Amino acid sequence: MTDAVRILDGVMRLADLVQRDMAEPFAGTSLTMSRAALLWVLDATGPSTQQALATAMSVSPRNITGLVDALEASGHVARTPHPTDRRATLVTLTELGRDVVTQMASQREQMAADLVAELAPPERDALAAGLEKLADRYEAMLAVAREEEER
Amino acid sequence: MTDAVRILDGVMRLADLVQRDMAEPFAGTSLTMSRAALLWVLDATGPSTQQALATAMSVSPRNITGLVDALEASGHVARTPHPTDRRATLVTLTELGRDVVTQMASQREQMAADLVAELAPPERDALAAGLEKLADRYEAMLAVAREEEER
DNA sequence: TATTGTTATACTCTATAACTATA
DNA sequence: TATAGTTATAGAGTATAACAATA
Q1: Would you kindly state where each structural domain of chain A is located, as residue ranges?
Q2: In a mutagenesis test of the B interface, which of A5, A33, A34 is the best target, namely the one with the most B β-carbons within 10 Å?
């Protein structure tokens, strides 16, 4: 197996493990990974239209309607009228929604710390830099491919 | 942001990009990521019972029934009677299924090669080793946590 | 005309529980 | 009694297309 494939496999395997682990705290609650992801995006961007959320999450507007419906029912977000555009609605985090995001953030840090506990600091930096380089590069590659396809 | 979090984020971001990219060739076909994953496992293990597939994929037996139904309908796998246990069925790859796996394997290699194209060989090896170490460690951590929970 | 969000419809992945046939 | 696979049922994520209200 080439080093290239070892890297690809390592990333996918690790991501799968992490994803299962992240989903666990939501068991028995109304939250799911997709809904939590929306909260996370919303916290990063501030109050947003559903269109903006759809774009940010690379998902259809219809999908956002469903996620927001569920999160509104569970009290994590609220729909408020857009101040200037009466077609649009602004989705905002409620206090409960903010609490959940805060908790997710601390879980993420704990998880990350546990993950790299056996790596020496220089190794950590090298690994982080390598991954970021690959992700940046990959994103650029996909963007180029998408443009070529449009032509 | 700590290096630990940079690593976690890098892994998740990269996995997301790769996953979207891997799903693309299936558009317009009857194949999906889950079905393709079953083909991949089946190729690695050889003819398997549905129970074995469920365990290997960490998924319910019922789920396997559905995936195999679809893959059987599309001609990628066949159900054959188990030679000694009449309760069980053996799932096997058809020629079409094998062709698809071969194609996926070469796409994976191409994708991996593109991904790391700008990394020098020593960097590649370090990155691969780092990721494998983290994944192994994480898997062990989860196994321990699961045992503790059972007590 | 174009855009925002929703209704209508459909497919897929996933799970648990009950059931049948077999071990 | 236990196991393999299926039927029954249900929730969740996702998409496209048509539509109403508004820009």
Answers
A1: 3-115
A2: A5
Strands B89-93 and B48-49: antiparallel
Nearest Cβ partner for A135 among B14, B20, B117:
B14
Q: What are phi and psi of A106, to 5 degrees?
A: -70, -35
Q: What gap in Å lies between CA B43 and CA A90, rounded to an integer?
A: 49
At A148 the pLDDT is 79
- Contact between A69 and A106 under an 8 Å Cβ cutoff? The reply is no
Q: Which residues of B fall within a CB distance of 8 Å from A138?
A: 14, 17-18, 21, 115
Instruction: Tell me whether residues A128 and B15 touch, CB distance under 8 A.
Output: no
- Which tokens is B110 given? 């191409």
pLDDT tens for A62-104 read 999 999 999 999 999 999 999 999 999 999 999 999 999 999 9
Q: What CATH number should be reported for the domain whose range is A3-115?
A: 1.10.10.10
Cα A11 from Cα B18, distance rounded (Å): 9
What percent of chain B is predicted at pLDDT more than 70? 99
From the CA of A21, how many Å to the nearest CA of chain B? 8
Nucleotides of D under 7 A from a protein CB: 3-8, 12-17, 21-23
pLDDT tens-digit series, residues A97-146: 999 999 999 999 999 999 999 999 999 999 999 999 999 999 998 888 87
pTM: 0.94
